[in-house]
Amino acid sequence: MIANTKQQAVLLAIDENKHLEGALLPILHRIQHDLGHIPSEHVIDIAEALNLSRAEVHGVITFYHSFKTEPRGKHVIEVCRAESCQAKGGRAIEAAVKAKLEIDFDQTTDDGEITLEPVYCLGNCACSPAVKIDSQLYGRVTEESVSDLIDSLKAEQH
Description:
This protein is of the alpha+beta class. The protein folds into two domains: about 5-65; about 75-155, 3-Layer(aba) Sandwich (Glutaredoxin), CATH 3.40.30.10. About 50% of the residues lie in helices and about 15% in strands. The chain has helices spanning about 5-15, 25-35, 45-50, 55-65, 85, 90-100, 145-155, and strands at about 75-80, 105-110, 115-120, 130-135, 135-140. It has a five-stranded mixed beta sheet, with helices on one face. Strand 4 (about 130-135) and strand 5 form a beta hairpin. The two termini are about 20 Å apart.
C-alpha cells in the first residue's frame, strides 16, 4: 500500500473515532484492521489528533500484543510458549519452526509470506504443545508434524 493510502487510512480512522470517549484504542484497532499494522510514521498524526504525546500513543501500541508496528506476513504462525507447552517439548517445536522458516520470533520470511510470533497461551493446554497457523489451532504437534504443516502452507502459496 502506498504511503498516501496509509495516511488516508490513518486519517479516516482518526476522523471516524476521535469523538469517542477513550478514542485511542478504537483508532488503533481500526488502523490495525485496515493496514495490518500501525505505521510508526503516523503515530504523530494520532497523537496530535487526540492531544496526546507520541510517547503515550507508542506506549499503548507496544503494551498490547495485538498491535503491530511492522507489516506481517500473509500467514502468521504462532507458537505457544506457556508452561504446559514448554513441559511437553515446546522448545523443540520453537527451534524446528525457526530453523524451517530461517527466521526468529517477530520476524517475517524474506518473501513476506510468513510471520512467526510467540504466544503465551493458546488455550490448548490439554493438547500441548500447540501452534496456530492463521486461524487454525493445532495440538500435540511434533517437530515433524509442524514441519509438514509449514510445507503445506508453502505449497499453497505456489
